[in-house]
Amino acid sequence: MALLSFLKPAPYLDEIQDKNVVKQQYRYWRIRTFYAMYIGYALFYFTRKSFTFVMPALQSTLGMTKTELGLIASILSLSYGISKFLSGILGDKSNPRYLMAIGLILTGVFNILFGLSSTWWLFAIFWGLNGWFQGWGWPGCTKLLTHWYSQSERGRWWSLWNTSHNVGGALIPLIVAVCAQYFGWRSAMFVPGIICILGGIFLINRLRDTPQSLGLPAIEQYHEDFSGSANHHQEKTELSVKEILWNYVLCNQYIWILSISYLFIYIVRTAINDWSMLYLTEVKEYSLITAGSCVIWFEVGGFFGNLVAGWSSDKIFQGKRNPINVLFTAGVFATLLLFTLTRAYTPFLDSLFLFFFGFFIFGPQMMIGMACAELAHKKAAATATGFAGFFAYCLGAVLAGAPLGAIIKNYGWDNFFLTLFICCLIPLFLMLPLWHVKVNPKYRQSEFSGKSEFA
């Protein structure tokens, strides 16, 4: 009970009446909240992707097969996906300050325990537990982004925050590859783990809950921006778990379409992210350092793709997220086609293709989650994105682990890439009918009626 009380949302304080103080405080806390969750989520990637870059070392030093490596990757994805959904429900009902910080600390602990292990079963247990607490990062960020930034500006803020994936993903190959090559693979697990434990302490110090918990007005009221789907008249009304899950997620057709699309997007994203290092070292015979240097460009491309996707969805498509999802998915398909046609030792071209993979794949990776948050109630945002995350990780990322490893082993890399082509086309056609959808009409009607949809 003490733990549950510890995680409860911070109570609302009496609203500050001085407009100058409100403006000053909002400016300060928005910046502080943003850089804290940016650094925090980048660090989550340190402990999530460390395994990817020690896979070749585990294969060579411990004799692990591709299927065994794929199973470990799938276990994390399955655990993370279930946790992301359940933690999404928890995230809508908890304080993101502690949820995110505790999750980061525990992922660091389980990375260290992984590095102390030598058997497949212990690897599987610790990596599964790591995946579970990885799921505590996203819901906290979703809640903070929907409560501190209004819809008309959220695309830019969300896309800028989403580059934390790329910063973390770009730094981890350098740290882990160097540690693995010069100090052994175990050090490549210890170092990220220690960094993340310290990062969790940093988050407890820096983060707070909603603006109202600091005596500030709701962001919609402060910005006079009521363009979103949330019913701002009921800002202080708490929704039950049943209302959040049933009314705003399970009975929401848009969430289902986007979640199924997310499944296939994540097969492609995870496949490129997890298997490209092994592909470059095994098929093209790159060294760990050369392959790691190529893979870094995936995250660099994702950094710029995030920014372009967020800016264009706000400025060019007036807050509509699905045109970006469609166009960027088509870009992934085109890049994949070019990548498969190049089989020689070409580090420059491989780096270029991985740059464009990252540029295009991070568009729908970000925008699908963002669209889910905006097409549900504001107080159901973490649950909606968690539901989509369940499809992405429990199905999409899991299928990109052991099943793709089996395809590579039994049918070769050509059929691996053929599978990815198919996985690009399915979400492309699923999301095309949603091109013009900006908000959920069902919730928008209740918003502007001046009455609560719960009346």
UniProtKB/TrEMBL annotation:
The keyword Transmembrane applies. It is found in: Endomembrane system. Pfam families: MFS_1. The chain crosses the membrane at residues 29-47, 67-86, 98-114, 189-207, 245-268, 288-312, 324-346, 352-373, 380-404, 416-435. GO terms for molecular function: glucose 6-phosphate:phosphate antiporter activity. PROSITE patterns: GLPT, MFS. Its main location: membrane. This is MFS transporter.
